[in-house]
Design brief:
Oligomer: single chain
Order of helices and strands: HH
Largest sheet: none
Keywords: Membrane, Transmembrane, Transmembrane helix
Number of strands: 0
Shape: elongated
Distance between the termini: 23 Å
Strand content: under 5%
Number of domains: 1
Length: about 60
């Protein structure tokens, strides 16, 4: 088996980071509306996916 264990994939980090960013914003907005919380999570995932697509295009 070839070992690629040492190299991390930045695309996964981009999606995870976008999700955490959306969660942080959503927790601040949860006081006002539950739909704003869900919306910020979806926007965070979307931003992460866009960044992941840009990163995969560079490779």
């Amino acid at each position: 088996m070839t070992g690629t264990r040492g190299k991390m994939d930045p695309r996964g980090w981009a999606v995870g980071g976008g999700t955490l960013l959306g969660l942080g914003v959503g927790l601040m907005l949860l006081r006002y509306s539950a739909l704003a919380f869900v919306g910020s999570l979806i926007v965070g995932i979307g931003i992460g996916l866009i960044i992941a697509a840009v990163l995969s295009r560079r490779d």
